[in-house]
Amino acid sequence: MNAVMNRRGFLHATSTAAGGLMVGFHVPGLAQAGETPELNAWVQVLPDETVVIRIARSEMGQGTLTGLAQLVAEELECDWARVKTEYPTPGQNLARNRVWGSMSTGGSRGVRDSHEYVRKGGALARALLIQAAANQWNVSVVECTTAAGFVQHGSKRLSYGQLAAEAAKLAPPADITLKPASAWKIAGRPIKRLDTRAKLDGSQVYGMDLQMPGLLNAAIKDCPVFGGKVKSFDAAAVMSRPGVKKVVQVGDSAVAVVADTWWRAKTALEALPIVWDEGPNAGQSSAETAAVLKAGLDAADAAVGSSQGDVKGALAAAARKVEAVYSYPHQNHATMEVMNATARWTVDRCEVWTPTQNGEAALAAAAEASGLPPSQCEVYKLHLGGGFGRRGAVHDWVRQAVIIAKALPGTPVKLIWSREEDMMHGRYHPVTQCKLTAGLDAAGKLTALHMRISGQSIIAGIFPQNIKDGKDPVVFQGLNAGGAEGALGYAVPNLLIDHAMRNPAVPPGFWRGVNLNQNAVYLECFIDEVAHAAKRDPLELRRELLATSPKHLAVLNAVAAKAGWGKPRPKGRHLGLAQIMGFGSYVAACAEVSVSKKGELKIHRIVASTDPGHAVNPQQIAAQVEGSFAYGLSAALYGEITLKDGRVEQQNFDTYPVMKLADMPAVETICMPSGGFWGGVGEPTIAVAAPAVLNAIFAATGKRIRDLPLRKQALV
Asked: Rounded CA gap, 485 and 645, in Å?
């Protein structure tokens, strides 16, 4: 097979693989002479008793690295104080028939999609160590026990480090039994994270920190209008500037300057005369997009996500109808660490060092840009200074870095985007509007609900081949009729949820919480509207509608009880509720706010509950909930990307602000794993932050806020 077919085949495999992965745990004969042999792909025990646990998923602050290590260590029964971690590379994964499975870290799947096979890796390694000890002692393996990195038999014991070399020569057992969560001693505990110390003492190397001999630096500028191209540029105008080495056109739409320092590259790029062909999108604006979406609210064409009963007939027969239109804007990921990658290219090898949420996708991008087969490329993953989905499905910056490096063969080049470039060339949270219509009977009971979503499809923008019959299933997150990922908990006899796809030129992307964020705002704020229209307590109406959804109801009841719903409150303090299921977990929130006579909002606290099925590290779960609220509330209060003359108007944090520490409410987390399933943690709770606050604002002011961000709305 030629190199082109290799790249295409690999790109197809890494973008479409979603399940059924071939995962192995013992690959004999690959350890080289002089190296410490591995027990399997996940575990290596060194002679000094260090236990190296390999982590295929990416660490970006969410704690997956520690959580997965806990699961392996739990089954291995090693000494946690001796645990270290390392990333296998996507090139190694490819060479070993994807022994580590998927390297994608998104959709809150880092732990929930890999817990079983990483635990098996630890358990199989432990079995090999026991067998090696039993062979030395000439006893049965069933007579041996393990604890804290030792195999024991009566008064005899051997350390894992003493046994590892012989254990690595043995064939693993065909079957292994994993521990029940009730027997966990390392997993399930609030163990300190493995990556904290390096972050505190500054030794952690992020992509922007990377240094190597001969390294050059690059700054890049893409056409400010989406879909535009480079018409011309005058490289000679900047080549005489100090430190400048080369000016490179990158694809059809960008120009980069390479220099000895990034600042010299950036300032030369600013001085570089560039003429753009802005293309057909030069006149687009957010106002035009909003008008297109508004028309979609009543359009005849719509893909159905969920349907039950006769909504049209039930609405016509309703004693009362309630209707509202909500909207949700484009938003940027705004990671603290901007997009960056270091690339080194030669005629037969391409290497990339970069923070990525998906090492395999980064490898595919590097191979495609380099013109080499994936087997001659490698990507070295670094910890991320924020991901939020931006560094997952699309690796535009990796392609750019490789193209630039090809212009300077053999020289490592570090590409760093400016903050302005990062703001203007993201993959944005999709823009949508939603029209909701409810029918009530004479007793005030909800008999019908129609949700019409109009707006952008992420899948159409990134994986258009996955759109079937005009439907993007990801649009309906949290609104599905059933299933383990995001089922609608409310029982409504007549229900229709549909989507009129309208895709503007602004490129969409997976943004932390994805479509669950706006769907929770639309659904939970409207349920609150229905409750007040029917003169019902919002909690009691939700309880009634969730009577057949016990897990949804449990998390809702937990936050209501802890927040003191229905009990006397300090003067001026008001509560708002929200609940939803997403990413396999059940979540709820109760926000407590006050609004001054001048319309100044103060969010005092949010009580959150989450049922992820299993809790690998309760402290990390609490931290994830708190972090998700900081991110979600920043979006609700301030987050909006707007387009004027085809250009993104927000270019830095002065025009795209985020929540400050002084504005962050107290967060009280209730972690209530009920067992029987594995749900996500990093994204579900972000969705309930905004609707809980919006409902509390209504309780405080009597005013409904249906359009975000809040900073554009008058609260009194």
From this structure: 39
pTM of the model: 0.93
Instruction: Give domain 207-279+339-416's CATH number out of 3.90.1300.10, 1.20.120.450, 3.30.365.10, 3.60.9.10.
Output: 3.30.365.10
State the Cα–Cα distance between residues 30 and 95, nearest whole angstrom: 11
pLDDT tens digits for range 384-419: 999 999 999 999 999 999 999 999 999 999 999 999
Instruction: Look at domain 21-192 and name its CATH class.
Output: alpha beta
User: Given the structure tokens 């383990």, which residue do they identify?
Assistant: 484
**For the segment 19-50, what is each residue's pLDDT rounded down to a tens digit?**
222 233 333 223 333 478 899 999 999 999 99
The pLDDT score that the predictor gives to residue 35 is 72
Q: In what order do the strands lie in the sheet with 349-355?
A: 244-250, 254-259, 216-222, 413-416, 340-346, 349-355, 377-382
* Euclidean distance between CA atoms 429 and 192, whole angstroms: 33
Q: What is the pLDDT of residues 422-433, one digit of tens each?
A: 999 999 999 999
What residues in the chain have per-residue pLDDT under 70? 1-34
Domains 207-279+339-416 and 286-331+428-712 are alike in CATH topology:
yes
Q: How far is it, in rounded angstroms, from Cα 376 to Cα 367?
A: 8
* CATH code given to domain 286-331+428-712: 3.30.365.10
Which residues, 6 or more positions from 655, have their beta carbon under 8 angstroms from its beta carbon?
Answer: 649
Domain ranges of the chain: 21-192, 207-279+339-416, 286-331+428-712
Give CA–CA dist 130/127, Å, rounded.
5
Length of the chain: 716
Whether 344 contacts 412, CB under 8 Å: yes
What is the pLDDT at residue 331?
98
HSE-CB at 652 with a 13 A cutoff on CA atoms is: 5
Tokens of 453: 């979503």
What confidence tens digit (pLDDT) does each residue in 53-90 have?
Answer: 999 999 999 999 999 999 999 999 999 999 999 999 99
**Long-range contacts from 38-41, C-beta under 8 angstroms, 24+ separation:** 38/168, 39/124, 39/125, 39/128, 39/129, 39/164, 39/167, 39/168, 40/121, 40/124, 40/125, 40/128, 40/172, 41/88, 41/96, 41/99, 41/100, 41/121
C-alpha angle 636/321/308, rounded to 5°? 85
| pLDDT score recorded for residue 702 | 97
